[in-house]
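Quick one before lunch.
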Amino acid sequence: MLQELNRRFAIGEQLKFEIHPSGLVQAKINTDKCSGSFFLLGAHIAEFQPRSQSQPILFMSGEAVFEFGKPIRGGIPICFPWFGPNKRDANAPTHGLVRTAVWDVLESKLTASGVLVTLGYQSAPFRLSLTVVFGETLDVTMNVRNEAATEQSCEVALHTYFQLGDARRATIVGLEQNEFRDQLTGQIHAAAGTGIRFTEETDRVYRGTASVVTIEDEANSRSIRIRPRNSYSTVVWNPWVAKSQRMSDFGDDEFERMCCVETANIAPHNWIIEAGQSQSVGFEISASSASRN
Ligand code: TA6
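Model of the 6-O-phosphono-beta-D-tagatofuranose complex:
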């Protein structure tokens, strides 16, 4: 399988497939623009670090579990066809079915922007593809096609974990004009008019669009920019102390070095996709060292 994958999709030393110590198939990207990796499990982008950055952009827990059928704590889990708990089946897995499924490689090529890879998975009645470009930026597009004879509703979230120098010194800018649902209380809050700072467990779904969301990672003297595409929900999460202690695949103090900003379409902005039609959501992530002045 590995030999066949590399025969069909490897690109010299810039993209090659290996067996991770856990037994999972992992693709490694190494170019003059960036380093990165993804697993076929969940089409899970696990690492991304532009050559210009001294720190990874994506966070990966030191306690993450790499096992068939288990979600990976960090990188970019894909939540689909529902976000959070399943509203009709309490026994269904949180965040849907596809982040713990093994996807297929459909395409790989070198483009002017970087290494492009497309992965595919059928989660009936939907056919999914994820196209990722690893370059100086990370560009991700998730496409969903409804192959049923009737319209179908679904939710999607690219559940991105970002690495921070110190979450207490970080600010998220770009959602000041968006109302949000506090997932911890169920309350809807009006637009705050200010940037987001982490001082406690924070779990919010911001509603509406945002042209760019910036994570001011002051402790790493850098800004991380997310430019969402066709996204009408943005989830902002930091588990803080108590929830970190409750997660077995997450270090008790790791909340200090991460946050999630998730490009999504979640109720009430869930997708209703007509029979035979498609929808897509994506983003471009870039990073720059904060200006010294
Ligand atoms: O996106 C935030 C959230 O919904 C939180 O409530 C928290 O549960 C997080 O996702 C992680 O979920 P997971 O199922 O990966 O542990």
